[in-house]
Every structure is written in C-alpha cells, then in structure tokens.
Amino acid sequence: MQHQARTQKLAVAALLATSALVIIGGAIWGVKLFIDHHEQTTAQPVDMAIGGFPMSGALAPDFMLIDQFNHSLTLSSLRGHEVVLAFIDARCKTLCPLTANVMYNAKVQLGSTLASQVDLVAVNANPTATSVAETQSWSIAHGLLHQWSFLTGTPQQLQAIYHAYNVYVQTDAGGDAVHDPVTFIIDAQGHERLYYETLDSQNRVDLNDEESGMVAGMRQWLPHT
Fold it and tell me: How far apart are CA 51 and CA 210, in angstroms?
C-alpha cells in the first residue's frame, strides 16, 4: 500500500511539473509573439516612409510659380516627364538638405538616359523667405542650381499650394519654418503616385535606404517609351 501511495504521489508530482513546463513555455512563446508583433508594427511606418506611400492617382494640383532664374513655370508644363516634387524651406540647413540629396542621388542612380525623363521640382516651404535670391542662394549652396527647379511666389500663392497638397507649414515670429518633409512622385500624365517622408537621420544606412526606395519609385513611374 505504501508503495502504491508513493507511486501515486510521484505521478501527481510529474503531472504538476509537466503542467508547469507547458505553462512556462506558453508564456515565453506568447511574450515572443508579442515582441515580434510590436517590432513589426513599430517598423512598418519607417519601412513605408522609405519605400513610398501609394497615392490615389488623382491629378496633381496645378500651379504657376517662379524658379531660381526668375522664370515662370507651371507644373502642367512638365507633362511627358515624371516629376519628383518636394517642399523645401529656402532657409533650412537641417532636414531639407537631406531631402534634396535623396532626390538628386536617386535620380543620378537611374543613369543618364532614364534620368533625362525625370524633373526635380521644389516648392519653397517658407512663406516668409520668398525671394528668388533666397531660392537661388540655397540652390547654389547645395550644388543644385542647374539640377532642379526651386520655385517660389507670394506667401498667398505658396499657402494655396500647401493647402492643395495637404502639406503642413508653420512659421514662427522669427521666420523659422516647420513643415512636413514630404516628396511626391507625379507620373508623366500628371497623376500623384507616391509620396515619401524624409527621415531626420544622417546615418548613411538610412540615407541609402531612402535613396533606394526613391529610385524604385522613380523607375516604377517613368514615362512609357
């Protein structure tokens, strides 16, 4: 009888130990799944920002502004070419140069033949620094004078474009601007296809990823020849 009781106790102990192991294993697996899901959810906006957010394909709002050479330019006059449209503060020395470099480097990576089908355009994102001298100086300082069209106009014209493209722009009393660091890809027929958000990072890996994402977007919406 004592032997039978001892056997039953050992069986119960083994069952309890097995149950505990199952519970602990399940808890560990659950924590792992939660962490994996959290990391995927957290990473998704960055990955999308690098790869470009798809847009509805609606016709991009047209506008007419003045470039860095004091020449009038309309967006619709660029039909037949893909347009990469960014919003750049004519006094910015931080995030805007990153956007400009990503645009330019991505276009260069296409090679000269394909790059000739892409126009880089920037709209001044500082309605308190609207002179042609400001956009020209910024273009020269960043090696882009003959590489793009940096457009400006009256504060009222610029505000209308910010509104049309749903781009947030706000300036403080000192004339410093805060704005969405967005870039749009517009196809050769004038339709909005992708938009990107520049990451506030000087890390070379991040910049390479952003350039690769924009190269892919440019290639996707090149004019059909």
Answer: 7
Residue 121 identity (one-letter amino acid): V
Query: CA 164 → CA 87, 130, 145, 169, distances in Å?
Result: 13, 19, 26, 12
> What is the rounded distance in angstroms from the CA atom of residue 216 to the CA atom of residue 48?
13
CA distance linking residue 62 with residue 207, whole number of Å: 30
Q: Minimal CA–CA distance to 185: which of 107, 86, 117, 104?
A: 86
Rounded mean pLDDT for each run of 10 residues along the chain, 225 residues in total: 48 47 43 39 44 94 98 98 97 95 98 97 97 98 98 98 97 86 98 96 94 96 84
The predicted model scores a pTM of 0.78
Q: What's the CA gap between 74 and 58, in Å, rounded?
A: 18
Euclidean distance between CA atoms 225 and 38, whole angstroms: 44
Question: Given the structure tokens 């799944």, which residue do they identify?
Answer: 33
> How far, in Å, CA of 111 to CA of 42, rounded?
34
Q: How does the average pLDDT of the chain come out, rounded?
A: 84
Q: Are 150 and 135 in contact (CB under 8 A)?
A: yes
What burial class does residue 18 get, using C-beta atoms within 10 Å of its C-beta: 0-12 exposed, 13-18 middle, 19+ buried? exposed
